[in-house]
Every structure is written in C-alpha cells, then in structure tokens.
Amino acid sequence: RIMGEIEKFIENPGKRDMPVNAVFQDGMFDQLEKRMDGIGWDRDHKVRQYWETDFRKRRIVSEFLKDPLLGSKRLASMPDRITNTINVEGQAEPVCRPTVINQYDGDLSSVLAWWPQWEAFMFDIPLAVEGKTAPVYQMLRPISKSKYPDITEAEEKISLPLQLLCAAIFDSILVKMMNTVSTPDKWQNLKRTMVDNLIRRKVPRTLEILQQTYASSDVITLQEVSVSFIQQASNSDLSRTHHIIPPQNPDAVRDQNSVILLRRDTFPEGALSDITDLVMSAFPEGEDVPVANGDLLAINARDVDGVPYVIASFHGDTNGLATKPVLDALIRTMSVGEILAAHELIFGLDANTYENAKPGKQQDVVDFGARFADHGLTSAWGDVPQPSNYTTFNARTYLQPQLNKACKSTDKRKKGDVNPKDFILFRHGELEVDRTWKDNTGAGGNGAESSPYVENMAFPTLGFPSDHGILSTTLRPARRFGGGGARVSA
Description:
It is a single chain. The chain has helices at residues 2-11, 26-38, 46-53, 60-65, 68-73, 77-83, 111-123, 153-157, 159-181, 184-200, 202-213, 227-234, 238-241, 276-280, 323-335, 338-341, 365-374, 412-415, and strands at 85-86, 95-96, 127-129, 132-134, 219-225, 242-245, 257-263, 271-274, 296-302, 308-315, 344-350, 353-354, 363-364, 377-379, 422-427, 431-439, 470-477, 486-489. By secondary structure, it is an alpha+beta fold. Helix 7 packs antiparallel against helix 9 and helix 10 (184-200) packs across helix 11. It is elongated.
C-alpha cells in the first residue's frame, strides 16, 4: 500500500509538488555551504548561484526528481552510488548514508531530524575503506563531461560540491515524501522488517536454503557473493559437507564475488588449482572485456572416481556483453595442451542475457545459445535456450535517484527485469541431463510437477532473498561407465 502511495505522489503530486526550499530549507543550504567552504570546496560560492537561481525554486517532483537532464548528469545518482552503503574495514555491518533507500536505522521522522545526521555523516565521521581513513565526502569523484556529456563545462568544474547539494536535496525530498504518504512509525517499521529479511538476514537465510534444500548438490556455483557470506559459510554446517572455494582476490569494495562449493564426498580433494588467471589472460589482446575482480572463478578438480573437471562460476556485467568473451576464453584455455582438454566442464553462470535484447547494447539469449553450441556445449535447458524461460523477475521502484528506470506497479511485467539469465553449461556428448528445475521460493524440488518456482512472481521476497532464481540439474555420464555425473546448482 505504501509503495502505491509513493507512486501516486510522484506520478500525480498536485499541491504536494512544492518548491525545493520548502523541504531543503535555505538555512540548511547555508550550513552546507559553510561546510564546503571549510573543506576548501567552492570558496567562490558558485554553488550558491545554482541554489538561488535554480535549485531552490524547482518543484520537488516535476522539476527535480523527474528532471531527465539532472539524471543524465548523474548529479544525484553518482553520490548515491558512492555513499549509499559503505563497507568499512573491521566492521561486520556497513555504514549507510542517512536516507530512505538503504538500511539506515536512524530517525527519519522529519527533514529537521534527518538533516544533522546527514551533515555529520558526510563531514564528521572518518571511515576506513581500502586502507585509507577519511570522511565520506572525500570518497566523491568529479563528474567528467567526456563520460557524461550532458553536464556543462561550468558544472564539471564544481561537480563535487554540486553533487553534495543534489544528494542533500534528493534525500530530503524522500524523507518528506515518506512522512507525507505514511506516518514515521508505520513506514520505518516496515523498512526495518524489509531490511532485516532482505539485507541483515540475507546471508543466514541463503545459508539456510543451501543447507536445508541443496546440501546434496555435488557442485554449487554462486555469483555476486559478499565477503561476509564467504566468512559465514566457512564457519557454518555447509563447510562440513562442502569445500567453500572463494576467488583468490575477492572484491571487498563492490562485494560481488563468484564462489564454488564442492561436495566433500564427491570431490574429496576440493580444488586442485585456480585457473582463473589463465582464463583472464586468454582474452583477445587489446579487447576491453568488462570483467571485474571477483566476477570469475575457474578451478580444476577431480571427483571420487578420478574424473577431472574444470568448474567455473561467472557473473556477467549488467548488459551481458562480457558473457561470450568469457566463454570463449574459458574454452580457449581448456583447448591449450592435453591436460585441461581431457577435463569435463561444468560452468554455472549468471549470463545476464535478455529475451528482447537491445542490439549492440545487450546480450541476446538465443545468440548466446548459438555461441555455446559453436563450442560444442549444451546447457541444462538443452541445446537452444527458450527466451521465455525466465530466472529473474524484478522491477525498480520509485525510491531511487534514477526515476527514468522506475516501473509503475502495472508495468512490472512489461518493463521489469524479466529475463532468462542463468545457465549451467557442459560439453555435448560427455554429460546428459536427467532433470532440470528452477526455484524462487527456497523450497527446492527435483523437477517434479510441484515446482518450487512461481512464475509471474516478483522476487526477492521476504523468504527468498535473491533476485535470481536457483537453477538445478542432475547430470549423468553420457559415454563413460561407472562413476561420474553430478547434481549441480547455480
């Protein structure tokens, strides 16, 4: 109900579309200006010119939140991206900017209550990140006109203080909006429930699903895994049944890592070696493949019957443009020399493929299927992927700084991320599918009629904390007699 009221507020604000300075008040700007002057930003007070002649007069919804030019300049979304949730060295929980759109748990019952918390967060609290301790404002980066051409040259020169101003205005509007469409006790309690289930309990709930429902899997490939998950999994009951294999260089800043779990009974030796660097070095020279630290993990292992495997886990970039180059590099690595060429392959990946891809900008799922078929591979879904066999169903809400990406409640299916993104690949003729199923409830299953995947249901949910369904398949050897085969979950 609250999300419906938020949608109404933004789509039809009416009299609630008040001037910015009725929310982020002139006195608040004066305090912000004093702070920026104190750190050596905007000593010429050029930001004040923008405030007095432009921002303070804008309507909060129609001329600020919904301004497409402000969005393309990234003046509000860039500082949100950097300061929304910060992983701090030596702390189990991240530090969050005082705003509606993260797990911040302070008092947001009014703009007056919010402002001193926001000001202190930005300027007064030093945080230890990547070996450097500094106030949050120092984490901001200038916005370059070469990368974001809509920003003017004048704005580019003062993009740092402009980001602070726009972030403050944005956060203040959200606080005002939430306390207009609901009461503080209602919406903040609802937010705490969602934070507890989708953020704070995400790792424990994920471990619970894996331990209770997927512990019999011989191979589990995971993507976008936090360092906290790796640590908690290594100290959980799951580590008694499975080897927990993280990347050699996990990404603690983005906190998105690919991980492989091998069942100890099936792979008693665990990972024999990490071949990720070999795969990364097989990218074509001079080609910029958008793969970050932690996105790819590739190992070789040997099962209890002595059968050698290359097992890989990969998280593709948002548009899926790295998926084919990574697949090509993996196959190229395995084809060099006789040792890896004799290995069987199991590759679990979030390919970030699309049913209706934008040509040249996104990876089409059928085109990806043609590529893995060219390499002599097949998938848990068969040789040709079905474009409507979805493994994601989620949509952006109005609580974000890029409203052009928000979906109306009636458009979730049409404009949301509803796509066939997840795959388990293996060599054609070496392994065969016994059965395959997917799960977006955590209930498990074995491919029977009582499927644990609810079609046309948006997720994550309070009970299922992932935005990708679990894909599982049972594989049997196609040519070899005795041993082999595996149950794989991705």
